[in-house]
Amino acid sequence: MPTPTTLELLWGLQQRPKRGPKPALSLERIVAEAIALADAEGLANLSMQRIAERLGFTKMSLYRYVPGKAELIALMLDAALGAPPELPAAKLASADEPWRDQLGPWCETLYRRFREHPWSMEVSVGVRPIGPNEMAWMEAALAALAETGLTNAERLDTIVLLTGHARSLVQQVRVVDTETYEQQIAGQFADMVAAAADRYPAAAAAFAEEGAVAGGEGALKFGIGRILDGLAVLIARRR
Length: 239
What we know:
This protein is mainly alpha-helical. The chain has helices spanning 6-10, 27-41, 48-55, 59-62, 69-81, 98-116, 119-123, 132-144, 152-173, 178-195, 201-208, 216-238. It is built from 12 helices and no strands.
């Protein structure tokens, strides 16, 4: 049987034996274990040998399901992203800007998926095979913008902007517990600014305000809102 390509593995196009006993291992199980390992220890410690040991199989047995680490990582990314969120139907969203009520949850959910699997940002760049889950994310966002009057290129660029916003915040925060992070960062900056308030009066005033925190969920929602505000101006101009 020829070795399956990454696209064939992602889209389930490879031929599978129809007869014989049920195999003790599966591609889905291998991918799930690889994701768990990468989540816990990062991609640097991901290897076919480590995954095989965790599963209780030999490394060679894994190659019956996936040709190598590159193909495995592509499968891991698509599985980690998962399906996009169920977006509110246009008729149930804002009458004037239904796309806003759809793209907001879209970006917030993407942020949380990246935060749960930080390694996924490292492997979701550049020219590479795209899997069905990742394609579904794109389809959902494009569909939300379908009646806006934007060109196809502009709709695709909107996806790039929202994705970039989600990615940048995850890269800055690099934590799972956002609430604890916000408390720590607020306390740290407050202490530093208080020690030199005369040198940094603007920073001292900013952090003195209750609820002022740099990064986290607040920055996520603020950035989404400003991106969508700009989009609303463009859409209104086209109309």
